[in-house]
Design a protein that fits this description.
alpha+beta, Phage tail protein beta-alpha-beta fold, Ribosomal Protein S8, Chain: A, domain 1, 5-stranded mixed beta sheet, 14 helices, disordered C terminus
Length: about 725
């Protein structure tokens, strides 16, 4: 049934009387179709309604007075609500009329302000004091059967979906119960430790529901040795009484406690505790024994020795204020360590126990590890040229004349001396017309011949010479020497070591070379004694890292690369050592590479040795000269890179990278055989080899295939052979 009758009556009234300021509408329908009722409401209110397919039935509405448009809309919403329907706001001011079941899950209006009482809206109620989960349990009975009430734990708020009038009632009730009824209190402890008492009381706090706050919060305050409590007034009062009782019972005599250390070293920590209570130093240190050794890694041909562990020390402080700079103690305080279990034993009153226990707790923390990598690069290029002529002229009746130069090899004087000694050792005897030549031996002659042989064997380059007799008792000889040498070297070393934060570490790969430090003769001058000291030669790295809170690493670093250059000379067997050493203190960001030092050297030397006057004669003057030219270029650079290993995952990733690097080299040599390192780890160590690091995503673009161009200009792609299954070759310089 339409509302024609009511509208006709209203129109007649309008024509008979002056028009009112606001249009009036009268509702008087019985058993009207719900869809027709919605259509009339759309025409009167000027709103758009989307009718759900599930909407059907009859409605009856009777009013005793005319209604304004807003009142008509309110009666319309109330009619829908009473018939199990709801108008949910939609886009562009429209409304969706649907069954009330599931309306809370539909998008609708947010906030009940200005909404009609029977309009279905969603409201957010923020709580300041009470817990949202607890408030849900209190307010849930007030929500209609079709509404919903949930708690947002993160924001401590309520999300309510219901009719506007009911939401206003729920908000008013939530404001009434959202009151801070908790109390706070601070308990200052005199004997017991705040952290210990707080942990004991926290274990007695009643468990709260899922997502709800605990009824009492207990926080230790180490700086003032107090605990702060906040929560229900009755519970706080009970816990305050318990804390005072525990503190009073801790005021007894001497207590004996054992502190088991997990990360710190008892031997290292003990002197600090001794100094605090006024005790002496560790007897092990007084005896000259070394402290706890730092981590080290060495590969050397020499021997190693391990220092014996230091004995445990015991320190006691008598009644009073203790030693200078120590904490005050009432009664005796004894601190010792048990080496077998890395534990500290303290016998003292409760106050000293509290202070020492808190100090031990803070110092016994897990230290970070630091990977220190050094890169030593040295590129050398040496070139040398020598050219010279040596003469020798001598005889029984003429003066001895010779030219000799320091840069010439072999030396003509050495060869001439050997030849002369041979002639001097010959004796000629003539008997009955027969000449007999006999050869004698002497120590001087043998020494000269040995020196000549050594000079010939050590000569380099090209040399030529001749010698002969001039006359009966005169000899003449000449040697021409020419040498050109080029030497290129490229040294790349990457020593690296992992150590704890603020822990010294040493790395050595090399040898121990004997170096003569002195010689002496016996009292009878018949025996010679030589003192020898062994010196480490190779690649050495000494480093102590310190990690700060900003993620930077301070390094106390000493880097040395040394090698044996050879003997001093052919007559002196002492060794010459080449050393490149850096010692510095620097700060580097985590994972960054820093160049800590270097050397760029270009050394060129030219030497001319000549005979005065004769070397100035044109043309033939070059025969009285010896020229040499040497040039040495050195490019040395040292880099350092510290990396902080903060967790087990960082340690595992580092191990996997280094393990995979070695494994790939073994696969490269024999791809068909399992790497030996995998076999060793699995069979000998009985564990699983580290997994290789996961490769990053790779984007592959189009590939330009090789092409062949025919005689007619046509282009055809060539066949590309399939790739072979082969282990990847680590690129040069890509050290993990």
């Amino acid at each position: 049934m339409r509302l024609k009758l009511s509208l006709m009556l209203a129109a007649a009234l309008v024509s008979a009387t002056p028009a009112p300021a606001v249009a009036q509408y009268t509702l008087n329908v019985r058993d009207a179709d719900i869809r027709a009722f919605i259509q009339d409401a759309a025409r009167i209110t000027g709103r758009t309604f989307v009718i759900d397919g599930r909407v059907n039935g009859k409605v009856s509405v009777v009013t005793d007075r005319p209604l304004s448009r807003s009142e008509y809309f309110e009666i319309f919403l109330a009619t829908l609500r009473s018939n199990g329907l709801v108008a949910v706001p939609g886009p562009n001011g429209s409304y969706r009329v649907q069954p009330i079941d599931g309306a809370a899950a539909q998008p609708g209006r947010i906030g009940s302000g200005g909404a009609a009482q029977n309009q279905f809206v969603t409201e957010i109620i923020r709580l300041r004091h009470i817990d949202a989960v607890a408030a849900v349990e209190t307010l849930r009975p007030l929500v209609s059967a079709q509404g919903s009430l949930t708690a947002n734990r993160n924001a401590n708020s309520l999300v309510v979906a219901d009719f506007a009038d009911n939401i206003r009632r729920i908000r008013a009730l939530a404001s009434s119960i959202d009151r801070d009824s908790s109390t706070s209190q601070i308990v200052t402890l005199k004997n017991a430790g705040a952290r210990e008492i707080a942990a004991a009381l926290q274990a007695l706090v009643p468990a709260a529901g899922e997502g709800a706050r605990a009824p009492v919060a207990i926080v230790p305050i180490d700086s003032s040795n107090a605990i702060a409590l906040r929560g229900d007034q009755a519970l706080v009062a009970r816990f305050v009484s318990m804390a005072n009782d525990l503190d009073a019972k801790a005021a007894g005599g001497t207590e004996l406690r054992v502190y088991w250390l997990e990360h710190a070293n008892a031997e290292t920590l003990l002197p600090t505790l001794q100094q605090l209570i006024g005790g002496g130093s560790d007897p092990a240190q007084k005896a000259g024994l070394p402290p706890a050794t730092s981590s080290s890694s060495s590969s050397s041909s020499g021997g190693n020795s391990t220092p014996a562990p230091a004995p445990a020390a015991t320190t006691s402080a008598s009644t009073g204020a203790g030693g200078t700079g120590s904490i005050s103690t009432r009664g005796p305080a004894i601190v010792t360590r048990y080496e077998g279990a890395n534990a500290i034993i303290v016998a003292a009153n409760s106050e000293v126990q509290r202070m020492l226990g808190e100090l031990i707790r803070q110092l016994d923390s897990r230290r970070q590890q630091v990977l220190v990598e050094a890169i030593v690069v040295e590129i050398g290029d040496d070139a040398a040229k020598r050219l010279g002529v040596q003469f020798l002229l001598g005889g029984k009746n003429i003066p001895f004349v010779a030219t000799s130069y320091s840069n010439a090899s072999p030396n003509i004087l050495t060869l001439g001396g050997a030849y002369a000694s041979t002639q001097l050792q010959q004796e000629t005897t003539t008997v009955d017309g027969t000449t007999v030549v006999t050869q004698t031996s002497s120590a001087l002659g043998n020494s000269l011949q040995e020196a000549a042989a050594a000079s010939l064997l050590s000569a380099t380059g090209g040399f030529a010479g001749f010698a002969g007799d001039i006359g009966k008792n005169t000899i003449f000889g000449a040697i021409i020497n020419a040498v050109k040498s080029d030497t290129t070297s490229n040294l790349l070393a990457t020593p690296h070591i992992v150590t704890l934060d603020n822990q010294a570490a040493k790395f050595l790969v090399g040898q121990e070379v004997p170096i003569t430090t002195g010689e002496a003769l016996s009292d009878n001058f018949d025996e010679a004694f030589r003192t020898v000291q062994r010196e480490e030669v190779g690649i050495k790295l000494d480093v102590t890292p310190q990690v700060n809170g900003a993620g930077e690493v301070k390094l106390f670093l000493r880097q040395e690369v040394s090698s044996v250059a050879g003997p001093v000379s052919s007559r002196n067997s002492d060794l010459i050592l080449n050393k490149r050493s850096f010692e510095t203190v620097l700060t580097v960001d985590d994972g960054e590479i820093l160049a800590i030092g270097g050397l760029l050297n270009d050394d060129e030397r030219r030497t001319i040795e000549r005979i005065p006057l004769l070397s100035d004669i044109p043309l033939i003057g070059e025969l009285f000269k010896s020229r040499s030219r040497t040039r040495a270029k050195t490019n040395l650079m040292v880099f350092i890179r510290p990396t902080i290993l903060k967790s087990r995952e960082d340690n595992a990733a580092l191990t996997a990278r280094r393990y995979g690097y070695i494994r790939n080299f073994q696969l490269q040599r024999n791809p068909d055989v399992e790497p030996a390192i995998d076999t060793l780890v699995r069979d000998y160590m009985g564990t699983t080899p580290p997994s290789p690091p996961t490769s990053a995503d790779v984007t592959v673009g189009p590939v330009n295939l090789p092409e062949l161009r025919g005689p007619d200009g046509s282009v055809t792609p060539t066949d590309v052979p399939p790739s072979t299954s082969q282990a990847p070759t680590p690129p040069a310089g890509d050290y993990p």
